[in-house]
Amino acid sequence: MDVRPARSPATTSPTTTVVVMGVSGSGKTTVAAELVARLGWAFAEGDDFHPPANIAAMRAGHPLGDEQRWPWLAAIADWIGLREQAGQSAVLTCSALRRAYRDRLRDGHESVWFAHVTADPALINDRLQRRKEHYMPPSLLPSQLQTLQPLEPDEPGTTVSGAAAPQLVAVAVLDALSGRGRDGPTSTGATP
Q1: What is the pLDDT of residue 136?
Q2: How many CA atoms lie within 13 A of 105 on its CB side?
Q3: C-alpha 26: how far from its chain's center?
Q4: Which of 124, 95, 114 is nearest to 173 (CA)?
Q5: So what's the pLDDT on residue 66?
Q6: Do the Cβ atoms of 12 and 1 come closer than 8 Å?
Q7: Are 161 and 108 in contact (CB under 8 A)?
Q8: Exposure pattern of 72-108 as b/e (b: 16+ CB <10 Å)?
Q9: Which CATH topology does 3-177 take?
Q10: What is the domain partition of the chain in residue ranges?
Q11: Cα–Cα dist 52/54, whole Å
């Protein structure tokens, strides 16, 4: 399993919000479901926070711009804040493609820790081609890959390969979250 060493959040937060991030088709939702099954934490699908106009744009094959993403990210950040206020740890899916987007999610939310699920673009494209019930067309994958900025060493989280079985990916995320995954091989070359 290809895992980037985890960086622990420098936090005093009593809760943890694992943001399972990556491009569409990387396995975010599947991995998040495995994490929720193991942890019993609250869950939210980031796609559910998109307004209808964003969904219509993506369904039509148009990549979203920042002006469309900022309100969506604000709604997700608000959900994170509500979980923190309630003392609930959570798992959330969100593409969080750019550093600025991740910074928006972390702003004022010490609980946030990222699990970046990656995979070979050919594998992701194959998954998107087979997925029929989602509004995100495979034609948008290149724009997502171009926009993607991998986690930087100062961001709390880890990078894991989503090519393995979802159960194994979830175990890798949990190991990294607990600090046991720090000695694994890196997938990005980044070090904490």
Answers
A1: 64
A2: 28
A3: 9
A4: 114
A5: 82
A6: no
A7: no
A8: bbeebbebbeebbeeeebbbbbbbbbeeebbebbbee
A9: Rossmann fold (3.40.50)
A10: 3-177
A11: 5
The reported pLDDT for the residue numbered 137 is: 65
**How would DSSP label each residue in 14-49?**
SS-EEEEE-STTSSHHHHHHHHHHHH--EEEEGGGG
**Which residues on neighbouring strands pair with residue 118, listed in sequence order?**
161
Q: What pairing do the DSSP bridges indicate for beta strands 42-45 and 17-21?
A: unpaired
Mean pLDDT in order along the chain per 10 residues (192 residues): 47 83 88 96 93 84 83 95 95 94 95 93 81 68 85 93 92 87 32 26
Please name the amino acid found at residue 20.
Answer: V
What pLDDT does residue 187 have? Answer: 34
pLDDT, residue 189, reads 27
Residue-level pLDDT at 125: 79
Quote the tokens at residue 147.
């926009």
